[in-house]
Amino acid sequence: MSYVITPAPHSTVLVASGATKKGDHDEQFPIHRIYCVGRNYAAHAREMGGNPEREPPFFFCKPADAVVSVVPVATGEPMPLAYPPATTDYHHEIELVVAIGAAGKNIPEKRAHAHIWGYAVGLDMTRRDLQTALRAKGQPWELAKAFDQSAPIGPLYPVSRIGHPQAGSIWLTVNDEQRQMGRIEHMIWSVTETISHLSRYFELKPGDLIFTGTPAGVGPIVAGDVLRGGIDGLGEIAVQCVAA
Fold first, then answer.
1. How far apart are CA 48 and CA 172, in angstroms?
2. N or C end: fewer C-beta atoms under 10 angstroms in the chain?
3. Can you name the residues that pair with 95 across neighbouring β-strands?
4. Reduced to 3 states, what is the DSSP secondary structure of residue 119?
5. Order of strands across the sheet with 219-221?
6. Which residues pair with 237 in a beta bridge?
7. What is the CA radius of gyration of the chain?
8. Of the candidates 34, 58, 27, the residue with the CA atom closest to the CA atom of residue 149
């Protein structure tokens, strides 16, 4: 078989190895799909004008090639992240990311952990002005959420090494000033509940990533800003917004 055009390269995420240089990360995790949970922390739901109660979770997607694979913060300079076009209100959202390693559909909550390969720190970057306008019209969010470089993600930590994080701080600073601070155990829908619910609608496949929602404190950034974020046990990442 031959292709009529050259296939795009497969998007991947680095696997945490304790190395200090990108080239030292020998293993990479291939990405199949990216699912994102909306408003999964009560305080963030309130700041966005939503209901903080346990309504059924809702999801949106990003393309696999929206990922920017970010090396750990210990490697030195923050990774450049281009300010996207068609927005004047570009927001950060720090999130726990779950990587799926085993396929499944209609997964019972009590078996969800068996489908997880690992965890990482990620950013759900958002063109907030577009999201607000689209939401007001009842239109899909792709223009606001699914653009190029909208999913920076740090190295994945395998479950075989760290187990399943049950609690811990999740935080983000902009130019060393605190913006977001929360705890992953305060998610409205837990990781296992999210996987179980999502698998009713999609057969989850190895390579799927799930962004699990962000705590309160989301806000705008501009070119030159340096973002640093982390989750207990999953390291820290750093990116710098640069002019397109």
1. 18
2. N
3. 122
4. strand
5. 126-127, 90-92, 219-221
6. 229
7. 17
8. 34
> Could you tell me the sign of the dihedral formed by the alpha carbons of 40, 121, 76, 9, in that order?
negative
| Two structure tokens written together for 14 | 């680095």
Does the pTM of the predicted model rise above 0.90?
yes
d(CA 196, CA 41): 18
CB atoms within 10 A of CB 184: 24
Specify which residues 36 forms β-bridges with: 60, 211
| Residue 99 host element (H or E) | strand 94-100
Question: Is the distance from CB of 196 to CB of 107 less than 8 angstroms?
Answer: yes
Collect the ranges in the chain with pLDDT lower than 50: 19-23
Give start and end residues of each alpha helix (H) in the chain: 42-47, 128-136, 142-145, 159-162, 191-198
Interatomic CA distance for residues 145 and 151, integer angstroms:
9
Encode pLDDT of 13-32 as tens digits: 999 985 444 445 579 999 99
What CA–CA distance (Å, rounded) separates 74 from 235? 9
DSSP 15-74: BP-S-SSGGG---EEEP--EEEESS-BHHHHHHTT---S-PPP-EEEE-GGGEEEPPPGG
CA distance 230 to 172: 7
Enumerate the β-bridge partners of residue 162: none
Across all residues in the chain, what is the average pLDDT?
Answer: 93
